[in-house]
Amino acid sequence: MNQTYAVELDHVTRTYKRDDFDVRALDDVTLRIPERRFVAIMGPSGSGKTTLLNLITGIDHATSGRVRVGREEITRMKERDLAAWRARHIGLVFQFYNLIPVLTAFENVELPLLLTDLGKAERRSHVEAALKAVGLADRLTHYPRQLSGGQEQRVAIARAIVTDPTIVVADEPTGDLDAVSAEEILSLLSHLSRQFNKTIVMVTHDARAERVVDSTYRLDKGVLIGTDVPTAVAGGGR
Amino acid sequence: MAIPFTYTRRSLFVRRFSNAMTGGGIALVVTVFVIVMAIVAGLDHAIRDTSSPHTLIVLRRGSTTETGSSLTLDQFDALKFLTAIRRDSTGSPLASPELAEQILIAGPNGSLDDLAVRGILPVGLGVHDGIRVAAGRMFTPGLSEVIIGRGLVGRYPGFTLGSRIHIGRRFWTVVGVFEARGSSFESEVWGDVHSLQEDANRGVVFQSIRLEVAPDADVPALIQRIADDPRINLQAETESDYYQEQSAVARQLRLLGLLVAGIMSIGAIFAATNTMYAAVSARTTEIGTLRALGFTPDAIMASFLLESLVLAVGAAVVGTLLAMPINLLSTSFSAPSAATMEFDCRVTASIVGQALLFAALMGLAGGWLPARRAMRMSVAAALRRS
Amino acid sequence: MKFTSLVFKNLFRSRRRTVLTVLSIAVSLFVFGALVSLPSVANQVLADTASSVRIACHTKMGIAYPLPEAYKLKIATTPHVVAVTPSNYYAAIYHDPTDQIPSIAADPDNVEVMWSDWGFSPGGVEAFKRSRTAALAAEGTMKHYHFHVGQQIQLRGTTYPVDVTLTIVGTIARGPAPSFMLFHRDYLEELGGRPGKVDNFWVRADNSRTVPQVIAALNAQFANSSAETQCDSEAAFVGGFIGRIRVFFTLAELFGLIVVLTIGFVAANTAAMSIRERRNEIAVMRSIGFAARVILLLLVAESVVTALAGGILGAGAAFTVLKVFAVSSGALGPFAAIHMPAAVLLETLAAAMLIGVLSAYVPARAASRLNIVDALRLVN
């Protein structure tokens, strides 16, 4: 059992106002995600999965409670510092890929590196390595509109890992993909997690995910209702 | 930590219709601005203030220009011995009664041009500061001789040293060419005032008196005396005040032009704002993604401002080029009762610089609010697909 | 019509954007209307003088050189000449240098014949002829300085070194300038010591066809004399003045055109954007059953209403401003006060309509014809 956790949430609540109502997206959630695990956060829509993810990445702020990621307490960080922290420690994968349409695959993957001090040549080698790792080394100069959905998501994953982040966070990464591409993406994430020992936190309602992850956290109506560790976790992923 | 320029450049291109429309509007505003400034620069250049601090111009009470003034020999005689007027080495007062006429002459392209002819007494050359005969000699009073300004040489047939020219009713010999520090006097013909009066058959009339004040003289008191003395009863002012008034037209024109350009720029700025708002709106997810990746709000704002700026400055270049033909415009302008002014329009480097700055300001003004909105977007909201 | 309510509802959807568009169109068309009025008024002045039977005779050398009085008889006996009026220009001010009253000192005997179109007040000409110090004043001058008939005033000459004291005995309705006075040349001659010089002989031919003939005869008559004449028809004479500043009229028109183009770009931009944003709606409307043509009409109608609103505002503002500041601007000289002629008002509104139609047409057409399936898919 690991003593250090990648993500620690302590009694975290997130409420916000919608017209006159107070909506509790997360209600007193406490959880610990160990390092170097590929975990899934699952639940019906409206359960607070995305909010949870946003809190982990610092995109959103908890109303109460503490959030620690990679040993840093981000609840108290200032906006400007959060941006820098995010650039360094977090890799993001979105449901709709969120690639910048006017940039090529190469340039998209390079984006997070522009926030570092690396020189042009170094950036190039990192980008090429990342694209190679996701199997798209031959699509460097393609624009997103020239790629299929699955390919776009792979570029997005390359972008997410290119800075060698502490945690990779994926929000419904297979949500917009057909069955075959979805399987490929899940397999890729699992592979990356094992090969590079990365902590990957994935929000999903794709039932197939349970087969590839190390553990699953279940949310319902903003409350953590359970944690599963699949019994059939064999080495090598799915 | 800046968003790469490639992003800015390509984003501008993606919405090219919208941006072209906005850019077109900005370009045209710049065109108007450059044209007006070029005209004003030309006018300013023509009315260059080469005034001397110790020269006064004396006109009829209420006149604003030499050609719209008249005074008599009696008035001149009463004035010339005022003690505040400087004397030359022989003790004669440096006061010059003058007659500045516009005489029609056949122009190079068949049109009738106004030729500025000034009748002076020999003392006049000394009274006009900085004017000297550069070639040939001064004319002899009583003879049909003239000297011409450097700017007139070659402009009309016969306007060279030594030849004869036909002005008014007779032929005059060009005995000298004078230079006048680049001022508008260099477009004048100077001759003996009495000969010119005789040729015009107008009797002994003058229009103005130029005089030099004695060193340490009390200029305001002299001006007052010239006005109050019933035998004189004229209006005196320093040459620089006089030139200020002459350039009033140029100033008014500049003001009018700036007003028009300013009003038009409001429309252009509005277009820019509209375009940028739409761009920000369409790129909400992109903005959210960039923020999520770690780009700071400042970087986002800077990127959008840069986009606006690049568009505006690019448009300004086009607008300036469109206005360039104005450089070919060389024309004359005369408000009635004022002398005709020849001037060339000129687009100077300074004007181009001002135009670019003006455009940059338009771009910044137009892009400011949308850029701020982009900067302030809540990342979570931006990422949420609605 | 049920569609008008649809049009207006759509316009008020984004009130801010509509208001801003209307305002920016209004502002630009205000500038357009004001700018184009200048050459328009000048052209009107030229047109008015085109059919005149009057001829202006001065020396070839310009107004710096006057003509001798004695020419009057010779001119009067030239065939087809109906009347001759010797006149001198007397530039004058009333009190301040800004109170310019350009005046003419003329022989009174033929004024009602020579300037039959000036609209002298009844009895004015007779009174004028009777008294040597009498004067006729333009209605504009009367109004501006609050003069009344019978009033005695003093004018200070600028180009003549004498002041004149005149009694106003009548008015001129349509003189050569909004600010203007006419008095006796004989009176000016006496004050000036009787030099016997005339700046300009006005000559009236019997009809417009004989004008060129008269001009030729007059010029020939005085050729090779000590004072050669240059006779021009009144149209050419006025045209000469205006011609000196023609370049500025061209510029004003050019600027007017540029202003309209600019606002055209802005309007096109706005229209394109708002139409693009409403693609889904348009698709939905089409799938309900609205014909493409109807949608095109609706969109263009919206644009036209906006542009017209701006046009009315802008033209109205320009009209009012020019009326309130009815200045006899130095630009046209003494000839006319710049106002906004009805033609320019209509031109401005027409420009507004054109902007409305053209700016929306292309994007509206594209949007209305979009394949419904494609359009609905874009709802994302």
Task: Please tag this protein with its features.
heterotrimer, B: 386 residues, alpha+beta, 10-stranded mixed beta sheet, 12 helices, elongated, C: 380 residues, two-stranded antiparallel ribbon, 14 helices
How would you describe this protein?
- The complex is a heterotrimer of chains A (238), B (386) and C (380).
- With 238 residues, chain A is of the alpha/beta class.
- Chain A is built from six helices and ten strands, in the order βββαββαβαααβαβββ.
- In chain A, helix 4 packs across helix 5 (149-161) and helix 5 runs parallel beside helix 6.
- The longest helix of chain A has 18 residues, at 179-196.
- The radius of gyration of chain A is 17 Å and the shape is globular.
- In chain A, 47% of the residues are buried.
- Chain B folds into two domains: 5-47 and 247-383, no CATH class; 55-238, no CATH class.
- The two termini of chain B are 30 Å apart.
- In chain B, the strands form two sheets. In chain B, strands 1, 2, 3, 4, 5, 6, 7, 8, 9 and 10 form a ten-stranded mixed sheet that branches.
- The model of chain B has no long low-confidence stretch (mean pLDDT 87).
- Chain B is α+β, with helices and mostly antiparallel strands and 386 residues long.
- In chain B, helix 2 (16-46) runs antiparallel to helix 8.
- The model of chain C is unreliable at 328-334 (pLDDT under 50).
- Chain C is elongated, with a radius of gyration of 30 Å.
- In chain C, 55% of the residues lie in helices and 16% in strands.
- The two termini of chain C are 33 Å apart.
- Chains B and C meet through helix 2, strand 2, helix 8 and strand 11 of B and helix 2 and helix 10 of C.
Number of strands of chain B: 12
Number of domains of chain B: 2
Q: Largest beta sheet of chain A, briefly? A: 6 strands, mixed
Determine the mean pLDDT of chain A: 87
Mean pLDDT of chain B: 87
The percent range for helix content of chain A is 25-40%
Task: List the strand order in the largest sheet of chain A.
Answer: 6-7-8-3-9-10
User: Which H/E pattern describes the elements of chain A?
Assistant: EEEHEEHEHHHEHEEE
User: Which strand-content bin applies to the residues of chain A?
Assistant: 25-35%
Look up the CATH topology of the domain at 38-59 and 87-228 in chain A.
Answer: Rossmann fold
